[in-house]
Amino acid sequence: MTASARSLGAGVLHPGTAATRFSLNRHRPPEDLAPFVDFCWVVRWDLRGEPAHEQAILPHPNVNLAFEAAGPAVYGIDRRVFTRKISGAGAVLGIRFRPGGFRPFYSAGKISTLNDLVVPAGDIFGPTADRACTAVLAAASSDEAMIAAGAGLLRGAGPRPDPVIDQVAAIVDRITADPELRRVASLADVFGLPERRLQRLFAEYVGVSPKWVMRRARLHEAALCADAGGNVDWAALATDLGYADQAHLTRDFTATLGVPPSRYAAEGR
Question: How many CB atoms lie within 10 A of CB 25?
Fold first, then answer.
């Protein structure tokens, strides 16, 4: 895998091909928005005179706010593979919220109500969302200017600090970093929370269950191994990722990505 493909990160499927079709740059959020925002991202492409490109993404447990030509939109956590088609030339600014970080901006209920949905940002932020999008796209020649324009929309919403965001974000980080955590009950013990309380926190703040986050982290790792090239020892990988056996990994991977891991790896070569 090339350096440009690796820089796309987990979740961008078949990054070797993707890196030839668009660029993706990540930026730290403005300091005052860091309690809520994981990072800002800018995608640029120029496919004029070339075929359109359809990119598949295996989403993370994060809500995203995107400013694009079609208008600003809030993307809830997609529990399936998300596919986006790009053509011509363009740029998009995205703001990826920390797990739980969108809760102060969303007064309509639990974050889980956004799952698998794309909601016009105006429905949540009001008419200022469209004005912010116009400003973002007018500044498309500079990542920094785009981010500054998008950040203004979040500041205008007046989010209040919420210590629960740090709590749930830390739990998600622990799941991602520790493949030995394979049971929700064990996770609850680590953080000293009743299991039902943990489930409620995730529904309200994250949007998906702790078990879903565990499963998705394993699938991200499996896809990264497949994309790295070379011969993958799927049986050993299944054990390392906490699956019962290779067949268990294959079933999980196929159910989510639509193809077995060995076929996915071959398609990327």
Answer: 12
**Burial tier of 249 (Cβ tally within 10 Å: 0-12, 13-18, 19+):** buried
Burial class (CB in 10 A: 0-12, 13-18, 19+), 109: exposed
Q: What is the pLDDT of residues 219-231, one digit of tens each?
A: 999 999 999 877 8
Residue 245: DSSP 8-state: S
Residues 9 and 161: their CA atoms lie apart, in Å, by: 29
The candidate with the shortest Cα–Cα distance to 125, out of 92, 148, 165, 158, is: 158
The residue type of 59 is P
Question: How distant is the alpha carbon of residue 253 from its chain centre?
Answer: 18
DSSP string, 82-139: EEEEE-SEEEEEEEEEPTTTTGGG--SS-GGGGTT-EEETHHHH-THHHHHHHHHHHT
The Cα–Cα gap between 104 and 89 comes to: 34
**Closest by Cα among 59, 125, 63 to 98:** 63
Report if pTM > 0.90. Answer: yes
- pLDDT tens digits for 19-70? 999 999 999 999 999 999 999 999 999 999 999 999 999 999 999 999 999 9
